[in-house]
Amino acid sequence: MYTVQGDHYVLSRYPFLMLVLFFGVLLFINRKRGMKKAPFFICAATAILLDWAIFKELWAASDPSRRDMRCILSAIGYTLRPMFACMMCFVLEPKRKRRLIYSIPLFFNGIISFLSIFNGWVFAYNDNYNFIRGPLGTVPFIVPGLYFALFGYLLYRYCNSGHRQNMAVIIVAYLGMLVSIGLDVFLDGTTIPICAIVCILFIYIHMSFGEAQQDDLTGLANRAAFFADLEYRPDCIVGIAMLDMNDLKGINDKKGHLYGDQALRQIGRALLRNSSLHATPYRIGGDEFSIIFRRIPQEKAAGIVTNVRAELQEKGISVAAGYSYRTGADKAGLTLLRTQADDKMYEDKKAYHDQPEHDRRKGKMPHPAG
Fold it and tell me: Is residue 279 within a helix (H) or strand (E), and if so which, with residue range?
């Protein structure tokens, strides 16, 4: 609960402002590529603006002559409340078109909140200067709820795409943000900025650590993530695929490393396009890739490998592949599963190089499509 002392906002909220400042500095000094920092900066700015609006609204509530100011501050507060969850959805959603769709409820909520200054759709203040909820008064609470439901799904997808480690941290942070919504609905709403910024800070720190398990070139989870995920609920793992690009050294020698990197990126994109919650791809070496299958039928696992190879073949990129699958009756260990997949992959690679047109001494190196 705030203790409002005139206009002394900075003095009253100094610990909160220092926390936001710390978060801003952390964002600024983190030079990790690929991390979407803009939504986090927006969250930090939103936290300060929302906190200030709530503080000033309580101050304006003490004097009926400040009615107009209180209406504007209320509109700002209702507009900003869904911003935190919306920005977190932006962080976890890679497709720009979907992010634009996600922003529609945010804009709708902001429009009706500011129109309420004139028509009372969301809120109004009666002749006794008491708050009155309008016919659309639940919208500023429904919209954050929708965003948090979407955010929960995106977090689940994120954690099941090579970022399973420290999942408990994200779950706790997510639950903390849900609690902040509950406090906002049933209490006075003064706790939501501090709750939101603490939870978002935890999510950011976790994701920063998670970036250390991501391959910079392809965007896939890396070797460290692969071995960590093998230890995460190993009983759910039903199959492993191993893939190795053919002729990478030839491309590097004849076309240059830029072409080789381009080919590796194409492989990463093909694997990501065919990934799912049950099939997580990894880059575990220079030209070596793998897929861990969890609770997926064997025909679907085989289909994923086939689709990846077919997509790459259309782009002029050849990969050797092999996969191994275990059923409920087959209790083969993960080490044996990996060994079997490796053996099948090397058999496939040998068959590729045994073909005259792929003889390394005279074969023509493939040129990856752009």
Answer: strand 279-283
Tally the domains of the chain: 2
Residue partners of 320: CB distance under 8 A and separation at least 6 = 243, 244, 245, 246, 345, 346, 348, 349, 352
Inter-residue contact 218 to 226 (CB < 8 Å): no
Report pTM.
0.63
d(CA 14, CA 156): 35
User: 25-31 long-range CB contacts below 8 Å, 24 or more apart?
Assistant: 26/201, 26/204, 26/205, 27/204, 30/208
Statement to judge: residues 42 and 110 lie in one domain: yes
Cα of first residue to Cα of last residue in the chain, in angstroms, is 58
Nearest by Cα to 320 from 287, 292, 295: 287
Does residue 370 belong to any structural domain of this protein? no
159, 181, 211 - which closes a domain:
211
**Of 350, 293, 77, 112, nearest in space to 192 by CA:** 77
Q: What are the two backbone dihedrals, phi and then psi, of residue 37, each rounded to the nearest 5 degrees?
A: -95, -20
DSSP string of 221-267, one letter each residue? B-HHHHHHHHTSSGGGEEEEEEEEETTHHHHHHHH-HHHHHHHHHHH
pLDDT tens for each residue of 136-181: 999 988 998 898 888 888 877 776 655 555 566 667 777 776 776 6
